[in-house]
Specification:
Elements: E1 30-35, E2 47-53, E3 62-66, E4 68-69, E5 81-89, E6 92-103, E7 106-114, E8 117-120, H1 122-125, E9 131-134, E10 137-149, E11 157-172, E12 177-201, E13 203-204, E14 207-208, E15 212-229, E16 232-233, H2 236-241, E17 249-258, E18 267-271, E19 278-283, H3 300-303, E20 306-308, E21 315-321, E22 327-333, E23 339-344, E24 352-358, E25 365-373, E26 377-384
Parallel strand pairs: 2-12
Antiparallel strand pairs: 1-3, 1-19, 4-5, 5-6, 6-7, 7-10, 8-9, 9-11, 11-12, 12-15, 13-14, 15-16, 15-17, 17-18, 18-19, 20-21, 21-24, 22-23, 22-25, 25-26
């Protein structure tokens, strides 16, 4: 059973974001926290101006590291990145590399590579010499499959179709098969829809994240499996031995939440085949900002304040526009909201002035810089990297 705990009222200053090449960087390495409690993950609401409050997600049931690599194989240098993955065919785990291209028009799946596998089938067939061999192969898609196209926003829909073929040779004495060539064929159809937008809040150590403007993207993948031996459909008894069904159809459904400037999705929720229950939530807390009550306030006063360099090492410079109300104080806080340094500024008597702040006593990490004036305040985030 799932619980709906969202506000559907109009949100103040919620922005309907548009994903572009510049604000949606390619996937980056991340430690993803996984939650598999299907009674505690709310099913997202589709629509405009939604508050997605996931600050009370149940405790994580595990975590995993996802690593992305630059292409190194011959012929793969034109692609942006690849990720190691594992595909299971008939109970056999097959290690693969999935290649992606990220460019000004979108994010695309472009190729698969699989190393050589020789799998002993004795435990399945009872034959001591029975085996299935998957040769090394590379599959360059004749039509690249779009995972996003730019610009992408609420209401946009992308559809794609492709075929994935994995060849093998199988030896099973009981079926008079001796290095018989075969093929495992998958017909993949995908629909990607901008199904919602609003603000999202996630749990973090010490509290909750600030609310981020997000677009919710709905992914549905339908895969039809077929198995062939020597050019003909594989016999049902052999398929049954491997737990396969000719023409079997499976669905993979999930919602992905994108926020501008993040190198990976801010939250992914995997749904069951009927879109009724949420079965898995995955998110990366290292990319989030803790809500300390300070807020990242964007107003006209904020726009007149600049902080550089960012990232910084030994010092930062804060510049002010004296045509606005004079800045009276600059305070640096850590992510927990603890005040670390406060500087009272002098009265600005020129049209433009600046203040240098020493950072020697602060460790590497992320901090807030809050600037107060007589009538306004603004908070900006900086990173210290010495």
């Amino acid at each position: 059973m799932t619980f709906l705990a969202f506000s559907t009222g109009v949100l103040c200053s919620t922005a309907q974001i548009s994903l572009t090449f510049s604000n949606t960087p390619r996937p980056a390495d991340a430690e993803i926290y996984r939650i598999t409690n299907d009674s505690g993950i709310d099913v997202p609401i589709e629509g405009a101006n939604i508050t997605y409050n996931y600050s009370n997600l149940p405790n994580s049931t595990g975590n995993e590291n996802t690593f992305y690599y630059p292409p190194t194989r011959t012929g793969y240098t034109g692609f942006t990145t690849f990720v190691n993955a594992q595909t299971v065919i008939g109970g056999a785990p097959l290690n693969q590399e999935h290649y992606y291209d990220y460019n000004s028009t979108g994010l695309f799946a472009v190729a698969n590579f699989m190393s050589h596998h020789n799998i002993d089938l004795n435990a399945i067939t009872g034959g001591s010499n029975d085996s299935i061999v998957f040769p090394e192969f590379e599959n360059f898609f004749s039509i690249q499959a779009p995972l996003l196209t730019f610009p992408f926003t609420y209401g946009d829909v992308i559809t794609s179709n492709r075929n994935l073929n994995t060849n093998f040779e199988i030896t099973v004495a009981a079926y008079n098969l001796q290095q018989t060539p075969g093929s495992f064929s998958q017909r993949v159809s995908e629909t990607i829809e901008g199904a919602g937008y609003g603000k999202i809040t996630l749990p973090m150590n010490g509290g909750n994240s600030i609310a981020y403007d997000v677009i919710m993207v709905k992914f549905q993948s339908m895969v039809i499996d077929s198995v062939f031996l020597a050019g003909s459909s594989a016999p049902p008894p052999l398929l049954s031995a491997f737990g396969l069904v000719q023409g079997d159809t499976t669905y993979t459904n999930f919602y992905k939440f994108y926020a501008e400037g993040f190198e990976s999705t801010i939250l992914t929720i995997t749904m069951d085949e009927t879109w009724t229950n949420a079965v898995l939530a995955s998110y990366d807390t290292s990319a989030l900002t803790l809500d300390t009550g300070l807020g990242l306030i964007e107003n006209e006063f904020s726009e007149t304040i600049n902080i550089y360099p960012n990232p910084a090492s030994d010092k930062i410079t804060v510049t002010f526009d004296a045509n606005d109300a004079s800045a009276k104080q600059v305070v640096i806080y850590d992510l927990s909201g603890k005040e670390l340094k406060a500087i009272n500024t002098n009265t600005m008597n020129t049209s433009y002035d600046k203040l240098e702040i020493d950072l020697q006593n602060l460790s590497n990490g992320t901090y807030f810089v809050k600037v107060d004036s007589d009538i306004n305040s603004a908070t900006k985030k900086i990173v210290i990297n010495k």
